[in-house]
Each structure stands twice: as structure tokens, then as C-alpha cells.
Specification:
It is a single chain. The protein has 189 residues and is an alpha+beta fold. The chain has 7 helices and 7 strands. A 7-stranded mixed sheet has the order 1-2-3-4-5-7-6, with helices on both faces. A hairpin with a 2-residue loop joins strand 2 and strand 3. Helix 2 crosses helix 3. One of its GO terms (molecular function) is acyltransferase activity, transferring groups other than amino-acyl groups. Keywords: Transferase. It comes from Phaeovulum vinaykumarii. It holds the Pfam family Acetyltransf_3.
């Protein structure tokens, strides 16, 4: 799997009004703003939210991206950044996605669109049979989103609920979410 393969995905096609793009060091201040917002950071791992520390993390991440170990994306709509999402922990038969933070003032359907893009890349581009991920207990909106999308809880520990999302669920979720997908897959004018 490579960055080159992912770039072929419609998910990163900036000809659409909504798309993903790879995180760059210049995104450090935007990401710090997301991670330091008390409404958004209640269910994510705590980190140094200084712009310099974030810039260093992104610089180190770019080496992991080049190696195909993880991919970190900015979620965009009409040339504005609204959030971030990451793919990581690639296993022979599964990929993980998370670190999902989106501004509360966002276009309708952008949350669902960004999840669809993770599955499009994971299943259609990288050809994985399954996705695995965890959600912090108490993050009920995200837990409920994943349950509605067709994810299956696998187990829990004191901090997290763990899920699998099987490739067989992908066309079902895509069809159920066709309105959001179509609304965000419109060509830019």
C-alpha cells in the first residue's frame, strides 16, 4: 500500500466540493485548534497542543506516511478545512481508522462523508476485508454512529469499546448514505 495508490482514490480528488488531503506541517495550527477545543477533545488522547510540538509530530508522521505505516488526512469542504481523520495499525487483514475530529459548525453530512471516505480507501483502494477501531466509552454519538453504519462491537475494556466493520457492510452503508455521498461528491464550480 502506498501514498500513490491512495492518491488515485476519488476521496482525495480536489475536483469535488468535499474531499480529503494529506496533512502537511502547515496544518499544525489548525490541528492544535481542534485538539485544544474542550468540546472536541473529551474523547481523544491528550497531547502537547503547542504548534511547534504538532509540527514536529507531523514531520515525524511524514516518514511513517512515506513508509505506508499510516495516513493522516484533513477533511475539506469548498476549500475550507473542517477536521482530521487518520488510518493506521494496518494488519494483514484489517486497517484501523480514527483520530477523527470535526468542527461542530460543519456542512450537513460531512461526518458521514468522511467515514465513507475511510471505507472507500480501505476497501476499494487498499483492498482490505475489514476495518477495526475503538471508541472511548462515553463518546455515545460516535458509538451510535458506528452501530448505525453497521459496525459490530467485538469487546470492551475499561477505556474503550472495540469494533469491526466488515467489507460486506461497506456497500450497505454506502447505499444507506447515498444522499450524503452524492451531496459531497459534487464537482467544484
Amino acid at each position: 500500500m502506498s501514498r500513490k495508490e491512495i492518491l488515485k482514490s476519488d476521496a482525495l480528488d480536489d475536483g469535488y466540493i468535499s474531499h480529503l488531503r494529506f496533512v502537511e506541517e502547515s496544518d499544525a495550527a489548525f490541528i492544535c485548534g481542534l485538539r485544544s477545543d474542550s468540546k472536541l477533545n473529551a474523547h481523544i488522547s491528550q497531547a502537547d497542543v503547542s504548534v511547534e510540538a504538532q509540527r514536529k509530530w507531523i514531520s515525524d508522521y511524514k516518514a511513517r506516511e512515506a513508509a505506508g505505516d499510516e495516513y493522516y488526512f484533513v477533511i475539506r469542504h469548498q476549500a475550507k478545512d473542517y477536521g482530521v481523520v487518520r488510518m493506521y495499525d494496518f494488519q494483514p487483514d484489517s486497517f484501523c481508522w480514527g483520530s477523527w475530529i470535526i468542527l461542530p459548525e460543519r456542512p450537513s453530512g460531512l461526518v458521514t462523508f468522511s467515514a465513507l471516505m475511510m471505507y472507500e480507501i480501505g476497501f476499494d483502494v487498499l483492498d482490505y476485508p475489514r476495518s477495526h477501531f475503538d471508541v472511548r466509552h462515553g463518546n455515545t454519538n460516535v458509538i451510535n454512529f458506528h452501530l448505525r453504519s453497521g459496525a459490530t462491537p467485538t469487546h470492551a475494556d475499561e477505556a474503550n469499546q472495540y469494533f469491526n466493520f466488515e467489507r460486506a457492510q461497506w456497500p450497505v452503508f454506502r447505499e444507506k448514505s447515498a444522499a450524503q455521498l452524492n451531496a459531497h461528491r459534487m464537482p467544484c464550480r
